[in-house]
Amino acid sequence: MAKRMILMFAMMAAFIATLGAIKFRQIQIAVAQAASFQPPPEAVTTIVAKSEEWPATLSAIGTVAAVQGVTVSADLPGIIERIAFDSGKTVQAGEMLVQLDTRQEQAQLTAAEAQRDLARLNLDRMTDLYRQGITSQSDFDRSAAEHKQAEARVGEIRATIDRKKIRAPFTGLLGIRQVNLGQYLKGGDPVVPLQSLQPIYVNFTVPQQEVGKARVGGGVRVSFQGMTGSDLAGTISAVDSVVDQATRNVQVQATFTNADGRLHPGMFVQAQVVLGAGSPIVALPASAISYAPYGDSVFIVEDVKAPGGGQTYRGVRQQFVKLGGSRGDQVAVVSGLEAGEEIVSSGAFKLRNGAAVRVHNEVQPTNDPAPKPEDN
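and the corresponding structure tokens:
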């Protein structure tokens, strides 16, 4: 009986050992298959990295301002008798814009001139009498003072009449007329905006740590949305002497000739301060950059060896890079890449280090340093 039980236990132990060995072998095969499994390659586009040299620039947002700009207004109250300008026209300094009614002042001038002439005759008579010793010094002085007062009164009325002729204070471009014929104007009422556009200012701010790079006489280029042709070039004419306590920025003013009149006061522009020759960089399309909190990276296409010493395949290697500025569709890579390396330009979001790829370059992402979108 005991021998039979021992034999049965031995047979069961052999069976369990055999079954365990088979399962262990199956697990080893499954693990090996999983380790050697390679996902299907991802379709990507690539670009060969090239070394370029971008000019060193400082970007800023600017606002266009007129060198001289005012809203021409009435100096004295009166009724508009004549409007001598058209909206949107160029006028010269001193050109008359509006004539106010001066009939009352003209009548006062006639009376004052008559009073002046009478005072002159009285002074002439008093002068003769004084020379003959007939009249006193005080009477002569009174007559001379009355003549001066009459002359001053005439000059005052003439000045009032001239002030009712509203003139352009400087040469510039008129805006839209804000008055009508026969309208009564009070002192200070607006008549028409007047802006001097040639030359013109562009004001922008730079961080305090960059203000040393913005020097008077340095070059500035501006562009704006909807702009046709090349960027406009100007020079820095002034740098503010104080730093804004709220933003820690310094205001800079650039002057542009604006010969073609493309810049107008109040426009929003993108300013680029030219700082001189730049350092070599690698320019890539923005779609090639993988942005992450722990660092920005790109994927380099190269021959990758399969795990376990297998065959090589076309795959990617993730490379962390340091980025510089941007220009249009391009981003500057200042370190981490070498010229001649093949970089994934689109499809990087679905890749991981070591992933297999299939290059499909029939359609490439935009890579224009100065793009002009159709809806711009």
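(Above: one complete record from the training split.) The first strand starts at residue 42 and ends at 48.
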